[in-house]
Amino acid sequence: MKLKFLIFFLVLPFIMVAQHNFVLNGTCSKNANKKIIYLTYQVNGKRITKSSEISSNKFVFKGEIDFPVKAIICTDPNFYMTNLNSKIFYLEPCIMNAKLDFNNLNTIAINGSKTNEEFYALQNTTENEKIHKKIDSIRELSKFYSVKMSTTIDNALKIQFQKSLDSLDQQLDQFVDQNIKINRKSGFEFIKKNPNSFIAPDLLDDLLIEEDEQIPYDTIKNLYNKLASEVKKSYGGKQLAEKLIDFENSRIGSLAPDFKGNDIGGNLLQISSFKNNKYVLLDFWASWCGPCREDFPFLKEMYSKYKDKGFEIVGVTRDEKLDLWRAAIQKENVEKWKHFSIKENKSTIEDTYAVTAIPTKILIDKNGIIIGRWIGSSVENTAAIKNMIIEIFDN
């Protein structure tokens, strides 16, 4: 009996670690004593950031989590991430070990986490590695030509170097797009085959962000429904469930979620007040967003033509610095329509309308039904919005 109790108390610490706590033991391959390394992750939407001083080329992070969670390890305290100073990985409620070069976290090796092994295996396919090598080589060439252009005084050579840089930028865009498509496809297949994996909610979240143009919402919802119950209970699983509800409520054909607050002039603004009276275009933007501001000329054209026929625009800003927001409105001469600050109103409107990128534009009809939704700034989106508005008011 005494032996059984002894065994129980010996294994108890390991049981506790496995169930609720994580330990990340780190070893640096080169001398990094006295340097600080940082870790951040989210638990139920709350960001947790830890730091650890490296001593004898070793460091340790400890914390409490109930489920595997995506994390970032970084050598920059502000988490300004580069390929060299940071790495995304999965923490798991267990003991993990990491080996790294402090000056190049891209080479980090982490073991002890099944979830992280799944994550890295998905990222490091042969196809992905080939594209990453091409992307890296293009970036190196871009650096080379940028240095050449900055050091030469020959204008003819400058023009030649700029043409090379432009060509490399186009190639880079193509390979980045190709990489996104490959990741989307591999992620989609992984979710179907691995409903018990804790990375599945994050992969579904990535698909959901682009669902307007890629994988339909119903397909994503069906994949979520097939996830294991334990995965649905995880931090990522619960956040995904909330996002799915927001997407469901803000899709084309849905009744536009109501919101209210004060506009830029301090007057009450409530979206439901336009019902049975006006068509409303919600324009999610920010003063620092170039593509957002590039859309203002055509928005001004539409507003000028149709404001007296029952057309209203409500600009919803992501700006943190409200003085820059107000200055941009004046500079762009768009004071005539309504403006709403997320920060000033402490609003959750972006979550409510499932806005994951700006610019995003959402058109609501007189019955309060969402009839159009566009992400990004493009010739195609501008044409689609114009055509819909013209068809509404000119027919």
UniProtKB/TrEMBL annotation:
<feature type="domain" description="Thioredoxin">
    <location>
        <begin position="250"/>
        <end position="395"/>
    </location>
</feature>
<protein>
    <recommendedName>
        <fullName>Thioredoxin domain-containing protein</fullName>
    </recommendedName>
</protein>
<keyword id="KW-1015">Disulfide bond</keyword>
<dbReference type="InterPro" id="IPR013766">
    <property type="entry name" value="Thioredoxin_domain"/>
</dbReference>
<dbReference type="InterPro" id="IPR017937">
    <property type="entry name" value="Thioredoxin_CS"/>
</dbReference>
<dbReference type="InterPro" id="IPR036249">
    <property type="entry name" value="Thioredoxin-like_sf"/>
</dbReference>
<keyword id="KW-0732">Signal</keyword>
<dbReference type="InterPro" id="IPR050553">
    <property type="entry name" value="Thioredoxin_ResA/DsbE_sf"/>
</dbReference>
<dbReference type="InterPro" id="IPR025380">
    <property type="entry name" value="DUF4369"/>
</dbReference>
<feature type="signal peptide">
    <location>
        <begin position="1"/>
        <end position="18"/>
    </location>
</feature>
<dbReference type="InterPro" id="IPR012336">
    <property type="entry name" value="Thioredoxin-like_fold"/>
</dbReference>
<dbReference type="Pfam" id="PF14289">
    <property type="entry name" value="DUF4369"/>
</dbReference>
<keyword id="KW-0201">Cytochrome c-type biogenesis</keyword>
<dbReference type="Pfam" id="PF13905">
    <property type="entry name" value="Thioredoxin_8"/>
</dbReference>
<keyword id="KW-0676">Redox-active center</keyword>
